[in-house]
Description:
This protein is of the alpha+beta class.
Amino acid sequence: MAGSGGIPSLNDVGDCVGDYDMRERVEGVLERVRSHLRGDGANIELLGITEGVVTIKLTGGCMRCPMSQIALVTGLENALKEVGSDVKKVVIVRA
């Protein structure tokens, strides 16, 4: 929420920093996963993070295989929880 005159309050700035930090941690985990996916002609894109829900999109070979998507979501959720992020779940959006 903005303070008086439309200037962000200190709480707003803190929220932005926290969001940025979480996004950086999530991107770090995704980059580790990308190195494996690229070997199979696939990739992963972070679409957003809202209230602990990480939304991703798969491209390439893995997007056609439902089992790989299940394994990927489970693996990502576990890896993200290990780095201490506040991720509640991972959602894959189909292109």
